[in-house]
TrEMBL record:
SUPFAM superfamilies: FAD/NAD(P)-binding domain. One of its GO terms (molecular function) is thioredoxin-disulfide reductase (NADPH) activity. This is Thioredoxin reductase. Belongs to the class-II pyridine nucleotide-disulfide oxidoreductase family. It holds the Pfam family Pyr_redox_2. Homodimer. Gene3D superfamilies: FAD/NAD(P)-binding domain. GO terms for cellular component: cytoplasm. Coiled coil: none annotated. Its EC number is 1.8.1.9. It comes from Anaerosalibacter massiliensis.
Amino acid sequence: MYDVIIIGAGPGGLSAGLYSARSRLKTLIIEKEKAGGQIVTTNEVENYPGSIENASGPTLTERMVQQADEFGVERVIDNIVEVNLKDKVKVVKGEKNEYKAKSVIIATGAVPRAIGVPGEEEFTGKGVSYCATCDGAFFTDLEVYVVGGGDAAVEEAIYLTKFARKVTIIHRRDELRAVKSIQEKAFKNEKIDFMWDSVVKEIKGEGVVGSMIVENTKTGEQKEVLANEDDGMFGIFVFIGYLPATDIFKGQVDMEGGYIPTDDEMRTNLDGVFAAGDCRVKTVRQVVTATGDGAIAAIQAEKYISEVFDD
């Protein structure tokens, strides 16, 4: 019997584990693959406080894991297949084992929806990005392309004009889906261009993104977009939505579009169940906000346990 089970070992889960174990709670973190979540694909982390000395996603994750381990967090690799979170004692079933706890913190994250074309995975972190705030500065004075036409895509395109020489929005339709006020800002921005009725079919390059194949959705015509010779590369930022990793909790934890709503204390609709990080309903999905969520969730889990189990 654990005091706290944390599902997910991204920054939110690791932060929750650190705070929970530091409070002398018997803590288990369950992760299906490897610690770090999305941050492990980031080559440089410039916007997390204290991440200097050329910190990368993997090195920052390594420090977080080491810190959690030093406070006595137990960690296992297991794929969760079933949960029962409604009872006082929470049951989490994995492919390898069954685990029980007094409280559960859901920190399973969300993953950007990929285009799903050849070369995309290969060049992620090498020209392909899913986070303008994380990676925009790396493309200072270069050309970048933004895939998508919704609010997030257009807002991020506008943001990227702070760094890039030119930003081209690639959209599969002939008009944007973003709200009119955001569209108007984009249309007025001299740095933003548009590639209508177009989809990316393939991403190519040597080491970094050097070209891409784009197809016209109406004519089927394909063309290759090449990097400027002087630049040697360009950026592709993908904003076509996120996929929260929350399916296993449906029917028990309340959700909004797959995301888990919480109060300011990270409490879900179920007693003793908390959510932290990108799987939660929120406006900013960054490492720094995930770690804050994790800390709050762990502190509230400790209070819950002391009120419900220690009487």
